[in-house]
């Protein structure tokens, strides 16, 4: 789920349905960069909330997510880019033992948030950042 500061959201119930990597690509595997695209209702920019959830299915179902980068655009609208630093396992057998990660930069409580007119909104704190 992706959301804006006004509480509007877009939900992709099966992210693999939005996958661009080809029929033989194995999504959510170690060292993979997975790319997705999809269409949804127009919501405000920049997107500032992410709920990333694994269904926990399959053998060795856990996966580590470094970051999610989202570019949003629509007809007659400016492009908006958000970089969500997740840095978390989505698994029930390794810490933090959660199948979901919620990153909220809309309320200012999701960690350091930076937005420049010339770059993306950055939500969360990258590993190894100056503030570590």
TrEMBL record:
**Domain PLAT intervals:** 1-104
Region (Disordered), start-end ranges: 110-132
> Pfam family of this protein, just one?
PLAT
Cross-referenced InterPro entries: PLAT/LH2_dom (IPR001024), PLAT/LH2_dom_sf (IPR036392)
- The positions making up the signal sequence are none
Note the SUPFAM superfamilies from the entry.
Answer: Lipase/lipooxygenase domain (PLAT/LH2 domain)
Q: What is this protein called?
A: Lipase/lipooxygenase, PLAT/LH2 family protein
Per the UniProt entry, what species is this protein from, by scientific name?
A: Actinidia rufa
């Amino acid at each position: 789920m992706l959301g804006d500061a006004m509480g509007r959201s877009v939900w992709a119930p099966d992210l693999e349905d939005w996958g661009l990597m080809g029929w033989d690509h194995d999504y959510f595997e170690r060292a993979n960069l997975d790319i997705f695209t999809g269409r949804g209702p127009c919501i405000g920019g920049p997107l500032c909330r992410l709920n990333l959830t694994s269904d926990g299915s399959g053998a060795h179902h856990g996966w580590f997510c470094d970051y999610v980068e989202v570019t949003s655009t629509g007809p007659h609208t400016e492009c908006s880019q958000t970089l969500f630093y997740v840095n978390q396992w989505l698994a029930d057998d390794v810490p933090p033992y959660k199948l979901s990660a919620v990153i909220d930069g809309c309320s200012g409580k999701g960690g350091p948030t930076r937005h420049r007119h010339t770059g993306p909104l950055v939500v969360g704190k990258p590993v190894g950042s100056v503030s570590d």
